[in-house]
Amino acid sequence: MTEPRPAGAVHVRAPGKINLSLAVGPKGEDGYHPLATVFQAVTLYEDVLAVPDEVIRVSVTGRHADRVPTDSRNLAHRAATLLAEATGIDAGVHLQITKGVPTAGGMGGGSADAAAALLACDLLWGTGLAREELGHLAAELGADVPFALTGQTAVGLGRGDALTPALARGRFHWVLAIIEDGLTTPEVFRAWDQLNSGARFAPRISDALMQALVAGDPRRLAGHLRNDLQVPAIELQPRLREVFKAFDETSALRALVSGSGPTVAALAPDHATALAIAAAVEQADVADEVLVVSGPAHGARLVESVRDSE
Ligand code: C5P
Asked: For binding ATP, which residues are annotated in this chain's numbering (predicted)?
């Protein structure tokens, strides 16, 4: 985003995420599944430029932009509307989204848009909410939205929205295999329901995983990565079998589906090896795009605020 910015515009960036662990319990009466998850924000971002406008509207460019709705189904649109309602303000905004996170990929791209839109509109409109208040609005918008505000590495309980920061040392290097034919979160949870009917257990996070994070040791962490949505995601998107086969033939420590998929994230021992793994998976031609990222990354934050006098 190097073009001149309109006066008064606010530019906020929010990260995509992967789930290092995602344990799912049986669906509750509210239609949601209790989760115990560990999120890690990674260096793949959504950029939201909030420009003063008469009405609330959204436009989208960047990765998979053609598949993102710009009307009130768009989570950033809903975020701006919710903030206006919650603060009783009658204001408009043009949210110009530049997507870096795959759409419907299980990496929380839409949630990052919503988190960035909340923060950008709060700054643009001068509504001055505390981070905690933004967090409450974020949780109303979706289970992954509060995490996109806070970023870093965090444990998510409840619907995934009750967050506790996790201690993680060092950087973890990931290779992402992106499949453009996305999956929606509800369909993957429905497939999980069918595979786990009658299940009675509370989801939990392994202590060993938390210890591996504190140690900053990718080899140890690899042994404890887990995603209960992986089996239903593979069932719905059989191309994933080829992706896993391709990673198996590299020095990736472990590969797993990110969130509800279909993005697959493979943990590498270091950055140089991540580049070599990415080249091999690219060569195998099993994914639509292969990227190298690292985590943890920061949560939604202000990049630039263009003063009116400029
Ligand atoms: O909260 P969010 O809008 O992102 O969730 C989308 C859908 O994913 C929900 O409507 C629900 O079907 C499913 N979901 C769930 N349990 C969760 C989170 C999401 O069943 N903890």
From this structure: 102-112
21 and 153 share one domain: yes
pLDDT band at 3 (very low <50, low <70, confident <90, very high): low
**2 within domain boundaries:** no
Mutational pocket test of ligand 1: of 22, 24, 33, 74, the residue with most ligand atoms within 8 Å of the beta carbon: 33
39: number of Cβ within 10 Å: 30
Active-site residue, from 47, 113, 144, 228? 144
Given the CA of residue 189, which atom of ligand 1 is nearest to it? 20
The tens digit of pLDDT for each residue in 246-298 reads 999 999 999 999 999 999 999 999 999 999 999 999 999 999 999 999 999 99
Q: Tabulate helix, strand, coil % of the chain (nearest 5).
A: 35, 30, 35
How wide is the angle at C-alpha 266 spanned by C-alphas 109 and 163, nearest 5°? 50
**Strand-strand pairing, 92-99 and 162-165:** unpaired
Instruction: Choose one of 116, 141, 166: the last residue of a domain.
Output: 166
C-alpha to C-alpha distance for 15 and 102, rounded to whole angstroms: 11
Ligand 1 test: best mutation among 32, 111, 161, most atoms within 8 Å of CB?
32
Among 166, 183, 211, identify where a domain stops: 166
Per-residue pLDDT of 33-79, as tens digits, reads 999 999 999 999 999 999 999 999 999 999 889 999 999 999 999 99
pLDDT digits (tens, 9 = 90+) for 110-126: 999 999 999 999 999 99
Question: For residue 200, what pLDDT is reported?
Answer: 80
- Is residue 143 within 6 Å of ligand 1 at its C-beta? yes
